[in-house]
Design goal:
The model has no long low-confidence stretch (mean pLDDT 94). The relative contact order is 0.18. The protein contains eight helices and six strands; from the N terminus they run H-E-H-H-E-H-E-H-E-H-H-E-E-H. 45% of the residues lie in helices and 14% in strands. Bound molecules: ligand V07.
């Protein structure tokens, strides 16, 4: 964990919530289903895409908050393999968000030693989206701090089927014996490899489902659900989720 900035006087709300965290029990990997952007916009009489835009602005906020307390990897579900079924205009808008995100945020990400990576199938993205994402990965590849992992064109059943296919090919080619297939090997064929499994999953906007997200990797993760929509989920809410994670981890530790 990074040493806190020296402060004088009354702590802000953020500082208060950081100080109440147990610095020895910060989750290594936090995954987030950033749901409720459209709902947030509709509540305000705005178009759905305005919610996506506001959600994008929140990505940096939560990334820096996670980095601040020493989280090592943050996976954000940005676009699922099912999201292609949305109206064409909305998909087009979503595909432009990485292009807007990087020029705006890359300097601050680099200044904070943050490394970007992707979990998903970038091949199927429009060229301009894929190029922008690949540029950001390249520009941050030597950074050694927080890994900011975007799940982009990702679906977990597809991930597992693709993993099984590659394992079967190895076996058919005689490079692998079926009895050598175990959990560790299977994990290596997941798109998230070599990231550790998430310790904590956060889903915003009230749905109580996993929705085809990291089905294998979430086997032992703590699940945290909040009614708040993603654009209104701020640093303090994030620290509250970490606090709840720590409360649960302590209970199990005590048994
Ligand atoms: C997207 C904003 C966040 C809420 C969820 C849906 C909309 C950031 C990115 C992004 C992705 C890859 C990357 C850099 C930025 C993004 C999509 C949607 C498709 F390398 N936010 N965001 N991508 N939303």
């Amino acid at each position: 964990m990074k040493p806190f900035k020296k402060w004088f006087g009354t702590p802000t709300k953020d500082e208060e919530s950081i100080f109440s965290l147990d610095t020895d029990n910060i989750p290594n990997h936090v995954a987030v289903i950033m749901d409720g952007n459209g709902r947030w916009a509709q509540k305000r009489g705005l178009p759905r895409v305005a919610g996506h835009h506001s959600g994008m602005k929140n990505v940096k906020k939560i990334t820096l908050a996670a980095d601040q307390i020493g989280v090592q990897a943050l996976t954000l579900y940005a676009f699922s393999t099912e999201n292609w079924k949305r109206p064409k205009d909305e998909v087009e808008y979503l595909m432009k968000l990485p292009l807007e995100f990087f020029p705006k945020e890359i300097d601050e990400l680099i200044a904070n030693n943050i490394r970007i990576r992707i979990t998903g199938w970038p091949e199927a993205l429009p060229d301009y989206t894929r190029k922008s994402v690949e540029d950001a990965i390249r520009q941050t590849e030597h950074n050694t701090g927080l890994i900011l992992n975007f799940a982009l064109n990702y679906g977990s059943r597809k991930e597992m089927i693709s993993g099984v296919q590659r394992i079967a090919q190895e076996a058919a080619a005689g490079r692998l014996r079926p009895e050598d297939i175990n959990e560790e090997l299977f994990s290596q064929y997941m798109l998230t490899a070599p990231l550790p499994d998430p310790d904590l999953l956060i889903r915003t906007s009230g749905e109580l489902r996993i929705s085809n997200f990291m089905l294998w990797q979430l086997a032992y993760s703590e699940l945290y659900f909040t009614e708040l929509c993603w654009p209104e989920f701020n640093e303090q809410h994030f620290y509250m989720a970490i606090q709840e994670y720590q409360r649960r981890a302590r209970r199990y530790g005590g048994l």
